[in-house]
Design brief:
Blueprint: H1 8-13, H2 20-29, H3 33-46, E1 53-55, H4 58-65, H5 69-81, E2 85-90, E3 97-102, H6 105-115, H7 121-148
Antiparallel strand pairs: 1-3, 2-3
């Protein structure tokens, strides 16, 4: 069997900063392997892209974790019960999008607004879409500036 090695050149450019608090406080609390893998995927899709939350499909989580649908769903449910993540469904029943958030001090206010009914799931989805578009615009602007030089 061939071992997959890390490409150290890519590590210098493409990486997700993982807070020390994850290793010190959160990881030891996660006793379920599926939950650990799902949490790390959510961390990659949110913190890794500079977003407060993200629309992540079960199919994406299955592909990223190499777990079964049942394991992914059980892992996500466990994380939500333990208060490590929170989710909201947006859209029509049967065709909803599920937004995932790590439970952080920054997302706590959003969670309260949604639970109190002061902010809709649709508004949160627009906010996340705006974050993504703004980041793409900044990246394109930097690339354009670089190409002009």
């Amino acid at each position: 069997m061939t071992r997959k090695r890390l490409n150290t050149q890519q590590l210098q450019v493409q990486f997700t900063t993982v807070p020390n608090q994850y290793y010190d406080e959160i990881m030891p609390r996660i006793t379920n392997l599926a939950a650990l893998k799902v949490y790390e995927c959510i961390m990659r899709k949110t913190i890794g892209w500079g977003k407060s939350g993200d629309w992540i499909t079960i199919k994406q989580l299955i592909e990223l974790t190499h777990l079964s649908r049942q394991s992914v769903c059980q892992g996500a449910s466990w994380l939500e019960r333990e208060g490590l993540i929170w989710t909201i469904k947006v859209g029509n029943p049967g065709r909803e999008k599920k937004l995932y958030f790590l439970a952080t001090d920054q997302t706590e206010a959003l969670e309260m607004l949604v639970k109190d009914g002061a902010m809709s799931g649709e508004a949160i989805l627009k906010m996340i879409t705006y974050e993504t578009d703004r980041r793409k615009y900044r990246k394109a602007t930097k690339l354009g500036t670089f190409l002009e030089e």
